[in-house]
Structures
1.
Amino acid sequence: MRHVLSAPQFDKPELLEIMNQAADMENILTTKGFSTMAEGKILATFFYEPSTRTRLSFETAMNRLGGKVISVSDGQSSSAKKGETVEDTMQVISGYADVIAMRSSEVGFAERATKTSLVPIINGGDGPGEHPTQSLLDLYTIQKQFGLEKPLRIAFVGDLKYGRTVHSLQNLLRNFDNFSIDWVAPKELDIQDKYFNAGTDRKFTELTDEVLAEADIVYMTRIQQERFDDVAEYERLKDVFILDAAKVAKMKKEAIILHPLPRVDEIATDVDPLPQAKYFEQARNGVPVRMTLIARALEII
Amino acid sequence: MRHVLSAPQFDKPELLEIMNQAADMENILTTKGFSTMAEGKILATFFYEPSTRTRLSFETAMNRLGGKVISVSDGQSSSAKKGETVEDTMQVISGYADVIAMRSSEVGFAERATKTSLVPIINGGDGPGEHPTQSLLDLYTIQKQFGLEKPLRIAFVGDLKYGRTVHSLQNLLRNFDNFSIDWVAPKELDIQDKYFNAGTDRKFTELTDEVLAEADIVYMTRIQQERFDDVAEYERLKDVFILDAAKVAKMKKEAIILHPLPRVDEIATDVDPLPQAKYFEQARNGVPVRMTLIARALEII
Amino acid sequence: MRHVLSAPQFDKPELLEIMNQAADMENILTTKGFSTMAEGKILATFFYEPSTRTRLSFETAMNRLGGKVISVSDGQSSSAKKGETVEDTMQVISGYADVIAMRSSEVGFAERATKTSLVPIINGGDGPGEHPTQSLLDLYTIQKQFGLEKPLRIAFVGDLKYGRTVHSLQNLLRNFDNFSIDWVAPKELDIQDKYFNAGTDRKFTELTDEVLAEADIVYMTRIQQERFDDVAEYERLKDVFILDAAKVAKMKKEAIILHPLPRVDEIATDVDPLPQAKYFEQARNGVPVRMTLIARALEII
C-alpha cells in the first residue's frame, strides 16, 4: 500500500513523479476547478491533535478530486478515551474509508496505524516526528519557482533544533545535487550534526546581510519562548531573527520566502505585499500536493 | 466580491432581487430537492463561536446547491490558539474554499477577514454586531406571507436594547415604505433613539391587547436575566413578555409570529400548533435564503 | 415515517427484509463501491454524546449511498447549552435534513425527537436504553455466517446486567426459533430474569470449557470496574472473563467471536488473527446495515 509516513521514504525518481503529478493537479484546479476521479471514494481525516490548516487542506484536496470525507477533528473525545488502541481504531476506520489522513502528538503513531489498517495511511504530522506532506508541498513550491536542477542556496532560519519541517525538507533536498544550505540559528537552537553536510553547508548564528543577499530561498520558522531558560536571551534573539521589509530589501529580487505557518511575529506583516513573500501561496500548494498523495494512495493515478 | 457583511449594505433593488432568487431556490427545494449549480465548489464554514443552527443551515444550503463543505466548528481549538491572526487564517482558508461563512463573538471580525480573503465572506454573526443572513431570512418570511407592498405593522417584543436581529431587521424594513413598527419592551431594554422613527413608530412598555390586535407580525425575542440588576424585576417582566395561546387569541387570524430561535420560554409551547406560529418555518427559510447568498457570492446566479 | 428507535419494534418478516437489503448493499460496496440512489439527500448526524465509530459508520453509509452529510459531533456545545429543548432542535434540523441519526446519554431521547421531527429519526444509542442499529449489524453478522434457520447456541459473556447491546440483540434473536442462549456472567452482573427463557437458555458464572465447546457464537462484552464495590473481586472476575487464544482453541473451528467494540483487554490481541475473530468484520458490517436503514427511511428502497 502507498502509505505516506516520512520524508526519507521518497527517492529522487518518486519525488520527481510526485512533482509532475502535483503540477497536473494544479492544472485541474486552475482550469475546470475540480475532478471526478475519486468519485465514490472516502477519505477519513483522523486528527488526535487539532489542526485547522492541515485537516482542511486534506479535505479540500479530496473534495476537489470528487471524493467524500468523514472526519474526526478531536480524536481525544471518542474511542481513545474509552481505552481503545490506535491499532483497533484504525482497523475499524479503515473498514469505512478508502484512505486515512491522520495526526497525533505521538511520534510513530501513523506507522503504528499501518499495522492494522486495511487502507493507505497518510501521516499528517506525528508530534515532533514527521510531517511529510508539508515537506512535499515545500518542495513543490521551490520547484515551481526554480525547477530542481540549477544551483540553489536555501537558508533555514530560526528554531533548527526542534523544527520538524526543517528536518524533513532538508531530507528531501538531499536527493538533489543542486542545494546548498545555510543554517541560521542561535546556538541554543542549532541544527544537529547529523543534518549538517560539511561539503556544501554553512552555519550562521545571526540572520546576516550575507545570508540574505546570497539566499535563493529563505525558510523562516518560529522561535518558541519555552525553549529558553533565560527570558532576556529569548527576547534578544527573537528580535534578531525577525524578517521585515528592511531585511527583505537586501535579498535578491527573484528569491522567495517560505514559512510553514502559522506565523506569529517572526515575519513582519510589511513583508506580505512584497514579491518574495510566497508563504501563503505555499500553503495553497498543499491542495494539489495532497490531491496527488490521495490519488496515488487510491491508485487512481 | 459579493461579501455579505451587514444589513445596511443592501438597498431596496438588491433586497427585492434576493427575495426573488430565494423564491427560485425554494422552488428547487420543493420540486427536485437539489441543484448541481455549485458542482465542484467548496464552502468553508468557520465558526469561532459554536452555532448549531446557523452552521448547519449554511452547510445544508451548499449541499442542496450540489457543492461541498469544509468546516471548523470551534475555531478556538486550532490556529487561533497558536496566535495566528484572523487575517492570516482567512488568507489561507480562502486558498482552499470558494466562499467562506464565518461567525465570531467579536464585532467586525467578518470585515477584518475581507482584508486578506481571496474569496467572498458571508458574516454568520459577529457577536453583538451584525447577523445579516438572519435578517434576510426574516424579511423573506414576511415577504412570503404578505408581500412587501401593502401597509404592515410589526411589533418587536422583548429585549430591544441588545437584540441584534431586531436592529438588523428594522434596518432592512426601512428600505420599504409600508412598515410601521411597535417597539414593545420594558424600560430597561428600550429601543435606542437612533432606531426610532417618530413618523410611523410607537412605543409600548407591555405587550398590550392593542399591540396584539393591530400587529400583522409579532417578532419575539428573549429577555435575558443577566441584563437586570434586580432579579425580582426580571421575574416580573419575563412573565409579562411571554406569548401564550391566550394572548395569540387576541391577534388577527392572518398575523404571524416570528422568533430568531432558540426560544426558551418566551413563547409557550401551546402556541406551536396555532396557524400564526411561523418561527419554525422561518428557520427553514434560512436554507433557500442562504442558497441565494452563496450562489450570488459564487456568481453562479 | 420509518423511524428506527428500538430493537423490539422489528418483527421477523421485517428483520428478514432488512437482512436481504443489507446483503444487496454489501454487494454494491464490493462491486461498484458506491451508489447514487440518495443523490441530493442529506443525513444529519446529531451526537449529543461523542462517538467515533457509530457516527463515522452512519456518515460512511450515507456517503456510499451518494448522499450528503451535515453533522454535530458534540451537541452539548450548541443549542442545548442555550436552553433549547430537543423537540425544538429536532424541528429545526428536520427542516434541513431528509433523515437524522442521533445519539444521547438520555434514555428515550430519540423517541422525544420523533414528536416534532418532520423526517425519520434513527436512534444511534440513547444511553443505557437502546442501540438498535448495533443489534441489527450483530444479527447481520450472524446471518452472514450461519443463516437464520439452523439451530445455533450463542454465549453472551461479561456484563449482562448493564450491557444494552446484549439486551437488544437477544430481543431480535427471540423472533427466530433456532437460538439457544448461554448467559455467562459473574453474579454481580447477572442477566435480569425478564430476559431469561427457561425453555432454551442456560446460565453460567464462569466462561467454562463447556460453554466454549458448544457455542456457535461467543458475544463478548466488557466488565467495567465501576460496577464493583470490591476492587479485588473486580480484578479476579475480569481475568476470568478474558478470552485469549488458549480459550479459543477450545471453541469449534467454525464458531465466531463478536464484540460491539471498543474492546479494552477482555479479548486478548492474540485472538485477532484467528479465524473465529469476527469483531472487526462485524464493525464493518455496520456500513451496509446503516445504508439499508437510511435508504428505508428515505423510502428509496
2.
Amino acid sequence: MPTSLGAIVEALGGVLSGSTETQVTRLASLSNAQKGDLSFIAQARYAAQLSTTHASALVVPPSLQELAAARGACIVTDDPYLYFARLTQWWAALHNAPAQPEIHPTAQIHPDAQLASGVDIGPFAVVEAGASLASGCRVGAHTVVGRRAVIGANTLLYPRVVVGERCTIGERCIVHAGVVIGADGFGFAPSNRTWVKIEQLGAVRIGNDVEIGANTCIDRGALEDTVIEDGVKLDNLIQIGHNVRVGAHTAMAGCVGVAGSADIGAHCTVGGGAIVLGHLKLADGVNVSAASVVTRSIARPGLYTGMFPIDDNAAWEKNAASLKQLNRLRERLKAVEQAIAQATEPRKTP
Amino acid sequence: MPTSLGAIVEALGGVLSGSTETQVTRLASLSNAQKGDLSFIAQARYAAQLSTTHASALVVPPSLQELAAARGACIVTDDPYLYFARLTQWWAALHNAPAQPEIHPTAQIHPDAQLASGVDIGPFAVVEAGASLASGCRVGAHTVVGRRAVIGANTLLYPRVVVGERCTIGERCIVHAGVVIGADGFGFAPSNRTWVKIEQLGAVRIGNDVEIGANTCIDRGALEDTVIEDGVKLDNLIQIGHNVRVGAHTAMAGCVGVAGSADIGAHCTVGGGAIVLGHLKLADGVNVSAASVVTRSIARPGLYTGMFPIDDNAAWEKNAASLKQLNRLRERLKAVEQAIAQATEPRKTP
Amino acid sequence: MPTSLGAIVEALGGVLSGSTETQVTRLASLSNAQKGDLSFIAQARYAAQLSTTHASALVVPPSLQELAAARGACIVTDDPYLYFARLTQWWAALHNAPAQPEIHPTAQIHPDAQLASGVDIGPFAVVEAGASLASGCRVGAHTVVGRRAVIGANTLLYPRVVVGERCTIGERCIVHAGVVIGADGFGFAPSNRTWVKIEQLGAVRIGNDVEIGANTCIDRGALEDTVIEDGVKLDNLIQIGHNVRVGAHTAMAGCVGVAGSADIGAHCTVGGGAIVLGHLKLADGVNVSAASVVTRSIARPGLYTGMFPIDDNAAWEKNAASLKQLNRLRERLKAVEQAIAQATEPRKTP
C-alpha cells in the first residue's frame, strides 16, 4: 500500500523537500533501502551514506538538507530518529488496522469479572473472578488474568501472558508473550538445614506506558508490592525480584536480573545481562553497562561498568592466572618501592 | 479480616506479651507497617527500628523482649524470621481458602490418565495418556502434563507449566508459571561441520518439597535422568542442563545457568546470574556468589566468588586496559625485583 | 523392547564383533550401564573404562576393537560419538512411533489458514488467518501460529510456542516449549526524557534444521528481518535481539544474550551465559567462551574469553580490591623501572 510523502508530512510534521505526490511503499534502513523506500539519517556524521543508499526518500536533520535535497525527496526535521519512531507508529496503524474487538467464544470469563466496552479477548484466554479490564484492553490467546487483577485502558497483553492474582497494570502498556507477572518472590527462612517458604502476600503494581519483553518475570512482593513505575521499558528474559522498585522511564536490556528489594531510580538504563544485587539503591540517572554486576548502592548519576575484557583465550589465560595473584603482586611492588627508597635515601643525606 | 494475637500464638507458639485480644489486620515490613499491622524484627541489631515503626505488634527475639513490650504488644520467639515465615503460611491459608477442587470442563484429560481424588485441574489444561496425578494435585490453566508423567500428592502446578513425557515430580512441590520441565537437553555430535542431534532419551526426576520459579527450564537427560533432589529451591529464569544433579536443599537465585552433567551437592547456594560449567562437581555446602562462573570442581564447602568489581566507567576502562597487560606487568615486576637483587647483592658481600 | 545388534548394524553400519543375535534393551552411559545395555566409548583415552563398565555391548573406535572384543560384543566405527547420535535417533523412532496425525477438535484454525496433508495439531492450538503449515508439521498444545506465519515441512513446534505474525520457519526444525519468535525488538527513541516506541515492522526468518531451546526468544526486526540460518542450534533461555543474523550451523549454549544487529558468522559457538553486544560482527568460526562479553567485532576465527576467575571469596576480595587500583599499580611500576634505570645508568657511564 503506497503512501505519499504529503500524507506523512501532514500527519507527522517536518518540512518536505520534493513533491507531496512522491509515493513510498516501505520503510527501510539506509543500507537495505531500495527504490520506493523511505529511510532516515539520524545524524550528520552518517552523511556519506547519502550517496550510497537507494532509498527514494529520506528523513534528515537540517544540517543535511542541502545534500539530501540534491539527490531526491527528503523530509527535514530536528530529530530524524524520533521522527522515524513516530513514523513507524503511524505506518503500523495505517497498515495493520486492528480488528473489531471481540470476546472469543472459547475464552473463559468468570461472571464476576468486569469488562469495559471495546475489550478484545483471544481464544482460550482466562479471566478470573474479580478481575477488571478497562476499555480498549486486548488480551491475547491463552493469556490468564488472575483473580482481582486490574488491567488499565488500551493495554495490550500478547498471547500467553500470566497476570497473577491482585496484580495491577496501568494504561497503554504492552506485555509480550510468555511474561509472568506476580509469581512468588524467592523468600525462604532457613530451619534445620531446610528452607521454610515465606508466602508472598504482596502483589505487582505496574504504571502507565510500560512495555515488558517476552518471557520476562516480575515477582510479587513478600509483604508490600513490587513496583514498576510509568514509562519503564523492559526487554526480554529479565528477572525482577520481589519488592523491587523500578523508577519511571528506566530502560533495561535483555537478560538483566534484579534481586529482591533493589530500589532503582528513574531515567536509569541497565545494559544486557547486568545483575543488580538486592537491597541496593540506584540514584536517578544511573547507567549500568552490559554484563556488569552492581554490588553496592550508587548515589550519583553516571556510567558504571565492571566486565572482564574479552581477549584471545591464550592471553586471557595468562592474565587471569596473574589476576589470582594480583594482591600479592601489589605487595611485591610495595616492597620494591621500599627497597628503592632505602637504597636512594642514604645518597640524599650522606 | 482481623486476626487476634491470641489466635496466632495458639497456632504457631511463641510467648505473647500483651492482650490475646489485640487484633491485627495485615502483616507488614517494619518500615511500612501502620497501625493495626503485625511486623517482626529478626535480630537485635535492628533494635533502633523499634522506636520508629508504626506496627501495632511485633515478633521479636528474647533479647528485644523488654524494649518491644515497653512499646506495645509483642510475640517473643527464638527465631523471629522463621516464625514470620510460618506466620505467612498460616495467614495465607486463613485468608485464601482454596476453592473446592474441580476438573474444569474445558480440560483435556486423556482417558488413560490416572487422577487421584481431590485433584484440581484448570481451564484448558492437558493431561496426556498414562500421566498420573496424586491426590491433592492442582494443575493450573493451560498446563500440559505429558505422557506417563507423574505428579506427587499436593503438588501445585501454576498455569502454563509444561511437564514433559515421563518426567516425575514429587510431593508438595510448587512449580510456577512458564516452567518447562523435560525439554530436550542440548546434545549434538559434530559431523561435516553440521550438528547431528542426539535424541534425549532420559527424563527429569524431581523430589519432594521442591519449588521452581517462573520460566525456569530443566532439561531431560541424554541417556539417564536429570535429578533435582528433595527441598531444592530454584528461582526464576534458571537453566538446568541435561544430566545435572542438584543436591537436596540447594537454593539457586534467578538467572543461574547450570551446564550439562554438573553435579551440585546438597545445601549449596548459587547467587543470581552465576554460571556453572558442565561436568563439574560441587561439594555439599558450597556457596557461589552472584554472577560468578564456576569453571572447576570445588571440593570444599565455603564461599567462592569471581566477579569484576563495578566502578565508574572511566576508572574501569583504565583498569581493564591494564588487565589485558597484567601478565606482562608481572614479568616486568619480576625483572625489577631481579635488578634490585643484583644491585644490592654486591653491597652485602663486598 | 529388546533390539538385536544385528538390526542396529544393518540400519546404521559399523563392523559388529560378536553375535548378531545379542539383544540390548537400553542405551546407557558407560558408568551407568548395566547388563543388557549398549554403551559407547568415544575415544581411546577412555579405554580404562572398558574394564569397569557393565554394558553388554559397546560402540568403539578401531583402536579399541581388540580390547573391546575381548570383553564382549562391540560395534566398531570411526566416530563412535556420531554413531551413537544416529543410534539415539534410530532408537527413538523405533520406540516412540509417532501417533497418526490429527487436528485436535479443540484447536482453533482460521478458515484462511493453509494446512498441508499430514499436519498434526494439538489441543487448544491457534492457527491464525493466512498462516501456512507444510506437510508433516506438528503443532503442540497451546501453540499459537500468528497471521501469515509460515512453517516448513516436518517442523515440530512443541506445546506453548508463539510464532508471531509473518515469521517464517524452515523445514525439519524443532522448537521447544515456551519459545517466543517474533516479539517486538527493543527499540525506542528518546524524547523529553521518555521513550517513544519504534514499531517493529520486520519479522523473523529461520532456516532449515534449526533447533531452538525452551523459553528462548527471537525478536522481530525493526525494519528488516532477524535471520537465523540453516542448521543453527540454540539452547534454552537465549535472547536474540532484533536484526541479528546468526550464521549457518552456529551453536549457542543456554542463557546467551545477543543484542540487536549483531552479525554472527557461520560455524561459531557461544558458551553459556555469554553476552554479545549490538552492531558487532563475528567472523565465521569464532568460539566465545562461557560467560564472556563480546564488546568488539572479531575478525578472525579462534577462541575468545573474558571471565573473572573464580576463587575463594577472601582471595577474590583482595584481588578485586587491587584490581580497582591496577592502572595506578602500572604507573607505580613504571616509576620504579625509571628509578632503577636512572640508578644504574650513572654506573655504566661514570
